[in-house]
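Long-time lurker. I teach an intro course on protein structure, and each term I like to show students one example going from raw sequence to a predicted 3D structure in token notation. This year I'd like something fresh instead of my usual example. Would anyone be willing to generate the tokens for the chain below so I can use it in lecture? Attribution to the forum is fine with me.
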Amino acid sequence: MTSSTPQAGQGAAYPVYKPSGIPWLGDVPEHWEIRRLKTLARFGYGDSLAADNRAAGPYPVYGSNGIVGEHDRANTKAPCLIIGRKGSFGKVAFSATPSFAIDTTYFIDSQLSSNDLRWLYYCLQWLRLDSFSKDSAVPGLSREDAYNNVLPFCPTDEQRAIATFLDRETARIDALIEKKQRQIELLQEKRSALISLAVTKGLDPNAKMKESGIEWLGEVPAHWKAVSLRRYLRVSSGDMISVNDFCEEGYPVFGGNGFRGYSDRWNTESDTIIIGRYGALCGNVRVTEERIWATEHAFRVIPLTTFYPKFLAAVIETLDLNRLSARTAQPGLNSEMVRNNVVGIPPISEQKAIADFVAAETTRSDGLVSKIEGSITALREFRTALISAAVTGKIDVRKELV
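-- Reply from a regular --
Happy to contribute to a lecture. Here you go:
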């Protein structure tokens, strides 16, 4: 038997430990056992339930990625665990109410395990079942593979203590993460508002204003022109490229969702505005810094008069083209959605000043967002480490609940 000391800040250790017999697991508390998952729980199969057969009701319907609807009947008891079998395989959800598990999932309820299901919920997270897949065409979790995993097993009262401790601590961490994610949203909203104000009203708060004649644009500085982009821009699609034409290096290839790889050919000059035409990032705007290949899933904006490219890109970004795309039957942009807009245009020197302001504000905002994202990553890593420490007995959480 051996004594063990937990990592700093993680709580007290159990009095006595013993070798688990598993090198990667190390020592476990003296009175714990090592069990295979198949001895602790059985996985039930979810049932087929087409979307058009679901009736309004009190029971959540779970798929492999979480709740996907509701139904008027359940096929599990409460509480229960839902484990992704296909698609988002290995993802684990806990339901405190009776639920309907569909056929892309497994489930565990009190009929399938006599152990504390909240404890088992954290154990299954620790096991990372999403890393076990043998299917290539449709990734999925084999029940047999899951069953063969080993778990440190403890008495029921300790299972409940571990679950209670982790419920409390993970809730605190999740609340912090949610708060930080909201901070990111607020920063992005502020950035968008500042950029929109700069490209529609200019940088001089004391400038004399005039009505633009356009409802959404309102007043613009008196020396600006309110112009239709139809008269000033040509918008054309990029060109198709085969996967066989990609190279390890060369000219960057950009499609609807951004960078895709490299080609030994180019079809777009530097300082050209590129707009995503299709895809999840439809409507995203960038200015090329070098020659690139723009695919057919992107638009190239060619000014017919003198514009400062980065100013014009900021103007187009404020049009929120992704919102326009979402209104169509098949989300995507056409050139008219870009050209059918009236915007305010200042002299070229002012365009550059506004573009410089936008770049500085974007850099500042992105820096703050990056720091917050780093702290979110650290919190998630700590959450994972805390679950691991608790379910493997590296810390004695019973003392934490006194």
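Some talking points for your students: The chain has two domains: 17-171+379-401, 188-364. Residues 3-9 have pLDDT under 50 and may be disordered.
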